[in-house]
Design goal:
single chain, 68 residues, mainly alpha
């Protein structure tokens, strides 16, 4: 079975990992440039997803706060 970027994107979408789906090419490039082993790559994908969700959550709260 051949793994393609599109297959990975689809699987990330099924798991609702939007950031990973949107940025998988950059994530893989970063991992290759830094010689990440597979465990480190997986950790990096998850860290990026957590960070993106946290940023989105903060943006949502700031918007809801409606500061003048």
């Amino acid at each position: 079975m051949t793994i393609t970027i599109e297959n990975l994107k689809d699987k990330f979408k099924v798991l609702k990992l939007k950031n990973a789906s949107d940025n998988i090419s950059e994530i893989i490039s970063h991992a290759v440039e830094n010689y990440f082993p597979s465990e480190k790559l997986l950790e990096y994908v998850l860290d990026q997803e957590i960070e993106a969700r946290e940023e989105a959550r903060l943006e949502k709260y700031l918007k809801q706060a409606a500061f003048p």
